[in-house]
Write a structure and sequence with these properties.
InterPro entries: DUF374 (IPR007172)
Shape: globular
Radius of gyration: 18 Å
Strand order of the largest sheet: 4-3-5-2-6-9-1-10
Protein name: DUF374 domain-containing protein
Number of domains: 1
Number of strands: 10
Keywords: Signal
Number of helices: 8
Order of helices and strands: HHEEHEHEHEHEEEEHEH
Helix content: 25-40%
Organism: Lacipirellula limnantheis
Distance between the termini: 44 Å
Pfam family, one: DUF374
Length: 276
């Protein structure tokens, strides 16, 4: 079972707690200079609205700073590596309004999947499916397996930045330039049937990976040109505290039953439909 943030903090060196708090403040200040726009297949999938049941959000590891800054306090649990390199990120994510589960396909995979399954009953899950070691932009089977087992839809987030600085890491981690453009192209809910065989899971995995890469390429091209897109919306950060976020979700719970659910997506088309 993943330790609670309070228990984990009690075992954390004081310098790391201080560093994570300062890092969280630095991320907020840096990322607040960017200009954010997005295109949605279905705007209701944005976790800021608190509409609908839990979902599994997937995005590439190199762009983790964008959701980390934009979607804290949105009832999200993020999967992070158990490696020591992710220790500070664990506490930064906590300060930014995320709950976290530690684990990966290299260590703690079974324990992490069990904990994600438990939290997926009442929370959204945020997964970087090519982390923590890559290969870059290749989707692991974990999110597809969870979606099939839990009956949760996958929502792919394609993101891009205008001429970001790139780290010399396995994922070419993207550091945005201050006052630059950030863009997202968010796909529809992808429903994975239960009881799939391993070859069927692999087919779905390839389909989700292909779609996520196409959305990401579209977002990167949009960020580079800065062109106007029909249907684009200015994206605001979720800046309220957890109590107010919970109150907002309760106030909008009645609206969930009034929404017409979007059609399921069969994850096989060669080219996604991108608005604009």
């Amino acid at each position: 079972m993943d330790p609670s943030p309070r228990k984990a903090r009690s075992r954390t060196p004081l310098w790391m707690r201080a560093a994570s708090l300062l890092s969280a403040g630095g991320v907020r200040a840096w990322m607040s200079t960017l200009e954010y726009q997005a295109l949605f297949y279905d705007p209701h999938v944005d976790p800021i609205h608190g509409v609908g049941g839990p979902r599994i959000y997937v995005f590439w590891h190199e762009y983790i700073l964008i959701p980390l800054y934009m979607r804290g306090h949105c009832n999200l649990t993020m999967l992070l590596s158990k490696h020591k390199d992710a220790d500070i990120l664990f506490y930064v994510a906590h300060h930014m309004g995320f709950e976290c589960v530690r684990g990966s396909t290299y260590g703690g995979a079974t324990e992490a999947l069990l904990e994600l399954s438990r939290r997926g009953q009442h929370m959204h899950l945020a997964i970087t499916p090519d982390g923590p070691r890559g290969p870059r932009r290749q989707l692991a089977q974990g999110p597809v397996y969870l979606a099939s087992k839990l009956g949760l839809p996958i929502v792919p987030f394609g993101m891009g930045l205008d001429r970001p600085w790139r780290a010399r890491s396995w994922d070419r981690f993207a550091v945005p330039r201050p006052f630059s453009r950030a863009r997202a192209v968010v796909g529809p809910e992808i429903h994975i049937p239960p009881g799939l065989t391993r070859p069927e899971l692999e087919e779905r995995r390839v389909g989700v990976e292909t779609l996520l890469n196409q959305l990401c390429h579209e977002a990167e091209a949009w960020a580079a040109t800065g062109e106007r897109r029909e249907g684009a919306v200015v994206v605001k950060r979720q800046g309220i505290d957890p109590t107010r976020a919970a109150q907002r979700r309760e106030q909008r719970a009645d609206a969930t039953n009034e929404l017409v659910p979007p059609p399921s997506l069969t994850v096989t088309p060669p080219t996604p439909r991108v608005a604009g």
